[in-house]
TrEMBL record:
GO terms, biological process: intracellular protein transport; vesicle-mediated transport
Listed name of the protein: AP-1 complex subunit mu-2
Family, as annotated: Belongs to the adaptor complexes medium subunit family.
Protein task: Subunit of clathrin-associated adaptor protein complex 1 that plays a role in protein sorting in the trans-Golgi network (TGN) and endosomes. The AP complexes mediate the recruitment of clathrin to membranes and the recognition of sorting signals within the cytosolic tails of transmembrane cargo molecules.
Record domain MHD: where: 141-394
Organism, scientific name: Amphiprion ocellaris (Clown anemonefish)
Compartment annotation: Cytoplasmic vesicle, Clathrin-coated vesicle membrane; Golgi apparatus; Membrane, Coated pit
UniProt topology in membrane: Peripheral membrane protein
Gene name linked to the record: AP1M2
InterPro entries associated with the record: Adaptor_comp_med_subunit, AP2_Mu_C_sf, Clathrin_mu, Clathrin_mu_CS, Longin-like_dom_sf, MHD
Any one of the GO CC terms: clathrin adaptor complex
Classification of source organism: Eukaryota, Metazoa, Chordata, Craniata, Vertebrata
Pfam family, one: Adap_comp_sub
Amino acid sequence: MAEIDHFMPLLMQHEEEGLLCPVISHGNVHFMWIKHSNLYRILILSVVLNITLLMSVVSIVQVFTEYFKELEEESIQDNFVVVYELLDELMDFGFPQTTDSKILQEYITQEGAKLEVAKTKVPTTVTNAVSWRSEGIKYKKNEVFIDVIESINVLVNANGSVMSSDIVGSIKLKTMLSGMPELRLGLNDRVLFALTGRDKGKTVVMEDVKFHQCVRLSRFENDRTISFIPPDGESELMSYRINTHVKPLIWIESIIEKFSHSRVEIMVKAKGQFKKQSVANNVEVRVPVPSDADSPKFKTSTGNAKYVPEKNLVVWTIKSFPGGKEFLMRAHFGLPSVENDELEGKPPITVKFEIPYFTVSGIQVRYMKIIEKSGYQALPWVRYITQSGGTLVFICFILIIIYKLVIIWTAIDVKSESQLTFFFFFF
């Protein structure tokens, strides 16, 4: 129990040395940690085990957020008994057991009176062959919503050439179906089309495919059919990766000029490189500025720009950005007369936007068959969402695309002034 006292000093030491790692060793003890907001979730190990398995176990934020809405220090303190019960069920004798929040909610509740009763009653779902779904589920209207969510990663050099690009995607379900239905999902999978001799039309090659436990893996390996009995409510059916060429959909050019440490002027031009029929909504360009800048002045060809001093940013927002259009933003800041050389690297320019009814990878849901012994009719709905890594923007029946642009500035002496050139990196 005393080993945890060594964690924070070791972590601070590693941060100072620039050697941060998700596993930190101290003698014969290993700390495996993940940070969420202001909390550290730590596993203390005396032997080196399967790190990827332990990472999935320690990533239990979703379970806690289902109970407390927000995972903060106060929510853990106020719900300590529930947290203790959850951890007891998530790990049984050192082995991961029930990690589905919906199953846990059947017998671990926030009402103390129900907690005492729940200790003597374990839901049959945990011991069933289909442990991820309860029996006797009924809905007046049977529906299933399919979300194809993709994260785009693109690296572009200074010449505007794409150096590397890939798409990391997932297919998520929101199932509202009665009984124990069997679902069969068909995608425009190139391997499937090749097996059936129908290698026609636009297909995709998925790599690093990972499925939810409900998917019958043997069936997929034999004929590439995705067959499963879905969990009730929301779940992630599968994740995958696609290696494909992706062009930057919004191109950014910027010029930053400093004048004798008295003022700085920034010019940013944004150009939509997608079809004219499409429109990017809620475009937001975040431009970093020096920490000692003051007296901001802006001029934009469209949209609004504002200065956010606590983050040292200029935020340029454009509600509607048609394809093929160009817009310009100019910013002027005063700088103190005393020279202030910042040693840290320049932060990135970030751009995010949403494009309805638009797809990049070309992945398509060809069909969704729903089979249930009662024979009811069910409605499947499909929506596509594309985003840059990490941030999920969820809009009904809208495809969403988010790009991040990183600018690395290099100072070049130009007579009495210093101009900054830039390199673009898209993530």
